[in-house]
Amino acid sequence: MKKLPELKIGKHSPKYPIVQGGMGVKISGPKLAGTVASCGGVGTIASVGLSCDHPQFNGKNYFDTNEIAMAESVKAARKKSPDGILAVNCMVALTDYDRQVRSACEAGVDVIVSGAGLPMKLPEYTKDFPDVALVPIVSSLKAADLIVRKWGKLYDRLPDAIVVETPLYAGGHLGATKMENVTDEAFSLESVVPELVKYLEETVKADIPVIAAGGIWDAADMERVFELGASGVQMGTRFACTEEGDASMRFKQAYIDATEDDVVVIMSPVGIPGRAIRNPFVAKYIDDAVESRPCMAACLSHCTYLRERTTFCIAGALVDAYMGNWDTGLFFCGSNVVKCDKLERVPDIFEELLAPFL
Ligand SMILES: Cc1cc2nc3c(=O)[nH]c(=O)nc-3n(C[C@H](O)[C@H](O)[C@H](O)COP(=O)(O)O)c2cc1C
Predict the structure, then answer these.
(1) Taken in order 134, 138, 141, 142, is the CA torsion positive or negative?
(2) CATH ID of 18-247+342-354, from 3.30.420.10, 3.90.220.20, 3.20.20.70, 3.40.50.720
(3) Cα–Cα 20 to 30 A to 322, which of 151, 241, 330, 348?
(4) What residue ranges line ligand 1, CB within 6 angstroms?
(5) Predicted structure pTM score
(6) Does residue 64 have a pLDDT over 90?
């Protein structure tokens, strides 16, 4: 029988070392996160754009409504899994990043996972919540080293775990500043996970678990990254296409229909590459002919659409995808989307993934 690592994230120990990655906008909401947590994994709510379809959102109170929606989302997930481990994924690139982090902590979440930029000030925003574990997402040892040194110097704090997400296969925004880095083997899990594990053991001399993300689909993938030294996996794409996934059925159908030729990497308005399904919207964007909705709320601290009117309003396009508007949405996906051939159930995925280990 194969051995399952024990994953301890700060004061929180999920039964199984399986983290469901945060997926915005609203692809991983309370239903998915609560179900994953109740199955013994870490369920993650994506914080981005929570107010988009909230009844109190009137077009002007986006950031205030995000806070209300955060409290409601965490409460709903907690109802599904009173004792499970719940995380909120907050992207550093968001204008209201600090407010989102604080409102997630106030709502009683166990873990904050933070990427799309380096979460340098995360310990400051969470200082009143010592039980909340802090987990940065990185794609290189260099990024992890910067965070570890800065947190140590300024806050006397270390990350409680680190997610290594490889741009080679992951979904959504990728941890690569340039297009050419997306396929660079230097950013593979095989390269980064062992060097990060060694760095944490030998240089930092701390027991900080490494969680591998990007392209994990089955138990064989899990075993492969455990052998590299990872103590857990983070999976996005497979969990998005489930009955419990919070997106519309049309979103999930797009996953089921996607073939290898449909998966593309585009430059997002955030200024970093993102992996998505080539639908009419993305095809027009690639042809430089996309028409965007107006900016929703200046939700990003750096947005090429807001600044230069090039690109498009990503919040609007991601909301459209969540709602299932095939012609106008941006359907983020990992390269494993080609393996989605049916709607799965979260408990079945857990059973299949864990079978060789239990
Ligand atoms: C639809 C979609 C949306 C995503 N949104 C976010 C997000 O809001 N924040 C984030 O840090 N990662 C986001 N991700 C990345 C996932 O959390 C996860 O780390 C990644 O997809 C793992 O790779 P996999 O899809 O191959 O399992 C997203 C991924 C997908 C597929």
Answers:
(1) negative
(2) 3.20.20.70
(3) 348
(4) 21-24, 27, 46, 48, 89, 91, 115-116, 137, 165, 169-172, 213-216, 234-237, 240, 332-334, 336
(5) 0.98
(6) yes
